[in-house]
Structures are given as structure tokens and as C-alpha cells.
Amino acid sequence: MHSPNIRSLLALRHRTHGESAPHTAPSTKPHHREPRPLCTEQLAALLMEIDPATESIVLGVGYGVSPTTFSLLQALATRLQAEIIGTRPAVDAGLIPPTRMVGQSGISIAPTYYLAFGISGQQLHTVGIEQSRHIVAINTDPTARLCQMADYVVVDDAHHVANELLRILQKRKSA
């Protein structure tokens, strides 16, 4: 939640409450390979290669994110110059405002990198992220729908991954 104009960064499309997503052609994103498993250190290395001046990063929060983990993700978003969005359960839990809900009843996004923390990947959400160039799923359940459609998967707890990413990024910045 750091960009002054999220619309210009993410190419968002709002829908009114209850309005269905328009029928669109399937995503042009090729899924010619299986999702690539990553450990937290590999994800940190990938994130350090991203140039925030030319590539956008969005952190997504879902049911698997506690308020404590959300605080870590806010710090991570600051470090990465990323935006934070969420699913309906994140809105219902009061973690994010309804204006930042992504999916069929919310907005659609098209960032370069979408990092989904604790999101199972219900169709109502994935319709809003399918134009993301690279999807990274962080989830304890490797069989979650989002893990199956992601480019990269970190099978681990969202809190642990967020904490480790912050630690690694801080350590490498200091070096």
C-alpha cells in the first residue's frame, strides 16, 4: 500500500458488488511446465533481482494470514516497494479494505510478480490474478489450487516465509 496511484501500477479493473466478471478468453499465460518448487532463500534471490522501477510486485493475503503475519507482510511490501491486496477472507478479517479485494467481486490485477501468501486459489480470486506475469504461491498445502496454477511454489507457512524473507533481505542489504 505504498504507491500513490495503484491503478497506474497494476492495471486494475473495478466491478460493482455482485456484478459478475465479464467473460474473457483464457489467460494467454503459458502453462507449459509444472510449477517450480522454491525454498525461501531461492525466493529471496529471485526478489532481489527484480527492478521495482520496471517490474511491479503485489503481495496477496488470504485466509492463511494472521494479523501478526500481515504486519510482517506490510514490512516486506515496504522493502520490496510492493502493493498489498487480498481475498474476501482477508477483507472479512479486517486485514485489507474492500477496495483492495481481488477477484470476481473486486478488482483484477496484472503485476509482473504476484506473491500469494496463504491463498488457496478459489476461482472467485484467481479470475482477478490470471493476467499476472509470474505467480508465486506460498502455502502449506502443495495441492491447493493456486499452487497448481503458480509458476513458483514455496510449501511453507506464510508467517515463516515472510519472516525469513525479511531477515534475508535485510542481511543482504547490510552486506
Which percent range describes the beta-strand content?
Answer: 15-25%
Task: Pick out the low-confidence regions.
Answer: 1-28
Query: What global shape is seen?
Result: globular
* Radius of gyration, taken over Cα atoms and rounded to an integer in Å: 15 Å
**How many alpha or pi helices?**
7
CATH fold call: Rossmann fold
Q: CATH homologous superfamily - what is it?
A: TPP-binding domain
Mean pLDDT: 86
The biggest sheet, with number of strands, parallel, antiparallel or mixed sense and barrel status, is: 6 strands, parallel
CATH class: Alpha Beta
Number of domains: 1
- Cα distance spanning the termini: 28 Å
CATH architecture: 3-Layer(aba) Sandwich
Write the layout of secondary structure elements.
Layout: H1 6-10, E1 13-14, E2 36-37, H2 40-48, E3 57-61, H3 67-80, E4 83-86, H4 88-92, E5 107-108, E6 113-117, H5 123-126, E7 134-139, H6 145-149, E8 152-155, H7 158-174
Helix pairs in contact: 2-7, 3-7
